[in-house]
Structures are given as structure tokens and as C-alpha cells.
Design a protein that fits this description.
single chain; about 160 residues; Cathepsin D, subunit A, domain 1; about 45% strand
Amino acid sequence: MSVVTRLMSLLLALTLVPLLQAEAHCPGNAASLRFPSVARSLIIVPVVINHAGPYAFLVDTGTQLTMVDPSLASELHLKIEGAANVVGVGFNANSVLARADSLEVGSRSVKNHVVELQDLELLKTAGLHIRGILGGSFLGHFDVLIDYAHNMLSLTQSCRSVT
């Protein structure tokens, strides 16, 4: 066996061993829920806030903060936490932050969750009857699997936290 072949074999083995070990440690208890097929790519899930709801939220993996429509925040008497300057591609806006005691999607929940209050009127006029957008501040607590073929969203405790 040549030196190059041995090095390639060793490199392949060193690459595969961590992958196999990570697979063995990942939990298999994914909390999955079905989502309706809306425009073939939109994911809308039921969200419970402070044990009230469920409310229809759009899942957006590219949004940093979870957003709640101000009318829903008012209905739920969410505590205002302050303001933040939100910067995105092509915009810069001031926004109000509030705190929810709990945010639940299926059997997964995050306690003491800060949300951004954002008027979602444009989405409502597009025919979407949503009350919020589930963003990275919630999704980042979990490993997320989106199965478009079966309209399933799975949230699993992060593999990184398993020892």
C-alpha cells in the first residue's frame, strides 16, 4: 500500500468516526408536527403563548427574533421590555420588545422568551391569517428538521447538549 493511499484511508477514517459518534448521541425523540401546505413552501404552525392559544405563526429560519403582532401582544398583556434598533437588508427600524413567560410549539417550549412586536398587516393582506413569526430566537434552542415532502416540522433537543 502506498503512503498516499494510507494517508487517504486515515483521513477518511478520521472524518467518518466523529460523524458516526455524533449520530449515536443524537436523541431520537423528535417532536414533530404537521403543517398545512400553503403556497407549497410556507410553514405555518400553532404556537401557544403563556398557555393561551394556539395562534398561527409563520416559521422563518432567516428571522433572528420571534415576532408577535402588537394586537396579540396586547390581548395577552405581554410585558414591554424596551426598544431595539432592527437592521436588515435594505431597512433600519426601531422596534418594541416584549417578554412572554412561555412559548410552545408542539411539546417544545422556551421559557422567559423575548419577542419583537411587529405589525404583520402586509402578511394578513396577502391572505395569511397569522399572528406572529417564529424565528431563530426560538428555533435556535432546537435542532430543526423541515420535511416538505410530508409537511412535517421536527424539533429535537440539540445534539450539542447531549454528552
